[in-house]
Amino acid sequence: MSTIEIDPVFSVALRAALVEHVVQAAVRERRHRVRVGLGAFLGLGLAAGGVAAAGNLLPLPGADVASVLAAPLTVTRTGPATVELGVAPEGATHIALDLTCLTAGSFTFDDGARVDCSGSDAGERVSSYTTPLAPGQHATSIRAGEGDEWRLTATYVHLQSTAWAVNAKGDTYGVENGHGTPDLVAVEATNGSTGYAYATDLAGAEGPTFTSPADALAWQAAHQGTSASIPVYEADGVTVVGEFVIGDRAAASPSAHS
Amino acid sequence: MADATQWTRSLEGDGGAFGVLFDRHRDRVFRHACRLVGSRHDAEDITAVAFLELWRRRRDVRLVDGSVLPWLLVTTSNVARNAQRASRRYRQFLGRLPRQPVASDAADAALDLHPFDGIDQHLGAALRSLSAQDLQLVTLVALEDYSVADAAAVLRLTPSAAKARLHRARHRLRAVLGGLPDDVTAQTIVAGGEP
After folding, report:
1. C-alpha–C-alpha distance, residues A51 and A164, integer Å
2. pTM over 0.90
3. Residues B13, A8: C-beta atoms closer than 8 Å
4. So what's the ipTM on this one?
């Protein structure tokens, strides 16, 4: 009777802000790792800002692969709404969501991720998003302004990291995933070739592991104007196809191809 | 109710998993904050700061039986004791969060008129009189039903040291609550922790 509940408006906003806080921290940590490489890491996906390389259409070893476990459900709603998805099938780990805004507005997923649509996006722009399935979860919500219309397709999926491949030298190769980093990490070289760089070379060239953003900034300031080039190989770890430069482009070796 | 999976995913940058932990423990953290501070607004801020601290100090967090709740409750107590200093770190963050404009005033008014269940007000004052470590022990063992061994693990004490401290803290609480017979005081303290 005298129970005091937390202000629901505050609680919803706090939850969304915490979710964003965690995601942003992860993105910052990855940026510190990838930092100012002139080449690009492949396969880090949307969470790292999305480096989609042409010629990278086949999934690389170690990439996440989603298996669809149930027929997709599509609904059209106006304003904030919760969509019942039915009981999750055995083995479901995530819900794959495709949101299409049908009017201008802001549309927010359960975890606080948000899609902003202008009038010209209406009916055109599809935002795909995969969200982890919480134990017992059987619904998902979209927050939207009153009168803002949206269409959502939701599918229960099983998301699994594929295995890294192993070359003749016994080195694993592929993309970083939840299991860690393979010996040879997929990268795009400065000349546009895709290949692999040794994780040990990358770690050596990137500096120490930072324990705080302040450390990382201090290290960056101290190493401004310097760069390190490391070789990019084919999957065999022997044949060189280009180079991956970490550091300041202006300081990169004049022999660097572009 | 194991948090280990969500916690591991959170550490990998999965915001949704952290959201699940928030959903799971929000009410317990908020209720504990209400015990320690006088206003709902402050208790909300403390709840927010406790979860922010959970994330900021994520490398130090210890799970007890796979749960982050004991660590959150200890942090809530620390934050409540140092409310001003802790909130300053997150002032901008807290300032951006919206609140129900009218309802919060009404709730504060209701809170002033009916402070929880009347006895908790005394309990809050008594709890605030404890040292930091005693408050943590009483929170975990007397109010939240954790074992002395679990509480000792979170607080990095030996079980025997925790037990001795807890014994002294209970005596002190009885003295501060004053006048109430031992059994009533004990009931009150336990009742404050019921879900």
Report:
1. 20
2. no
3. no
4. 0.74
